[in-house]
Amino acid sequence: MKLFLDTANTAQVAEIAAWGVLDGVTTNPSLVAKEGKDFKATILEMCRHVPCVSAQVTATDAEGMKKQGQEYAAWHKNVVVKVPMTTEGLKALTFFKSKGIKTNTTLIFSVAQAMLAAKAGATIISPFIGRLDDMGEDGMTLIAEIMEVWNKYDFETEVLVASTRHPRHIVDAAMLGAHISTIPYDLFKKLPQHGLTDTGIKKFQEDWAKVAK
Ligand code: G3P
User: Fold this and answer.
1) CATH number for the domain including 58?
2) DSSP symbols for 87-116
3) pLDDT recorded at residue 212
4) Quick check: pTM over 0.85?
């Protein structure tokens, strides 16, 4: 499973990319606004580190999405145009597919939306599981249902598990065969950690110090 960082902070991307495990970055307008930096410069800096960087359109009509998306795609070959799951978004996805522009369909909350985005030619779809969990639903059930449908047909569209909140989300997504998980920085930093690893290293060092000359 590919691991993406869900951030618009370029320092965080550089830090995690240095581990050698980062396959991509997802941004959204909220994350970009939080950082308060120039959007194009942020995306281009991220493209130096990873081969797949999602840049989201803010237009709500298909023509506006097409215009913005074509502009973003021209910035760098690693840019993936992120399009919201609306009927206008579906029209834009079809257009981007015809132009060979990679896309990520965001704000997917149902299997029907997932199938429509895939049929419209999305490179990636992003079901948001944490926001479903927040409403008292089980977001991972949506991933299980999407993967069941994907395993029955020939959709080339990759399933990206978004809105992840805790390490178990990443494990469950992998066990279901999802292609990608996008992970917030604080959660990504938790993934290499285990208390038994820390105590094990401490014990090795203490024992070695007893005999080391
Ligand atoms: O980038 C899309 C998604 O991962 C946002 O997550 O935590 O705002 O629901 P969240």
Assistant:
1) 3.20.20.70
2) HHHHHHHHHHHHHT--EEEEEE-SHHHHHH
3) 83
4) yes
